[in-house]
Amino acid sequence: MNIGSAARAAGLPVKTVRYYADIGLVEAPDRTQTGYRRYDEAAVRKLAFVRRARDFGFSIEECRELLSLYEDKSRSSADVRAIAAAHLEEIEEKQRQLAALRDELALLVTACRGDDRPDCPILDRLA
Amino acid sequence: MNIGSAARAAGLPVKTVRYYADIGLVEAPDRTQTGYRRYDEAAVRKLAFVRRARDFGFSIEECRELLSLYEDKSRSSADVRAIAAAHLEEIEEKQRQLAALRDELALLVTACRGDDRPDCPILDRLA
DNA sequence: CTAATCTTTCCTGTAGCTGGAGAGTCAAGG
DNA sequence: CCTTGACTCTCCAGCTACAGGAAAGATTAG
Question: Per the count of CB atoms within 10 A, which of A92, A100, B3, B96 is most buried?
Fold first, then answer.
């Protein structure tokens, strides 16, 4: 399986697959004589695993940890849970910040008449 | 006023003030004979304006637009409002995505016992 | 006068890719 | 056999919004 098919199967751009190999996250098992990367089923599964974890907002480093736990049959679910719980906490913190921001900005937007005249509570607030 | 005092007055790191000058966002009015940037009150006001806009999550390019509207005494508040409203829409979209993500991840975390055993719904979901 | 603090420019690195150049490889069609 | 088009390779640059650090000059306090 060449990189193109592997990328399609995993749902990732070819560039990204190559990038993951460069940083040692998911490397192709071997190369052809002419230097083409060959991917097997296991590698494709790992790529797809990473894609889903990335969709969940896990960082590359978190993905690396999750991947090694994924590979480790004697892992404890507590280890995985700890990573996910920490990530969940980050997301919730981000949510709180975003909510505060939104509320304040929404106030400004509704306060601004948005007409031809120059007076604008939004700029006033920023000044 | 040297860059250090200006940065303190505006609540920004010196590095950031220099960066804003480099990208032509807020430039120091002039330089001393020995090359030191001199900032005046107006420049400091602009720096503080940008800092607050950045706190609101506006991008540098949005700040550039807001700044030119801020400077333009014949601006219409509608122009400002349009930028803010667009940004608000982005924030709300981000909020929706984050909420969906959080809910799904929270489900997984609660589903995982987090003990010494290897079976883990989180990894199962990612695999 | 000296030591400490500021300031300058320039270069590098961050996260996570994406785009492009230029060159080589492969499979199919004529 | 040749060509064409699709695929792949490596390397380099750029994106956001700065942060860190080196080496050198400027300024200020004691």
Answer: B3
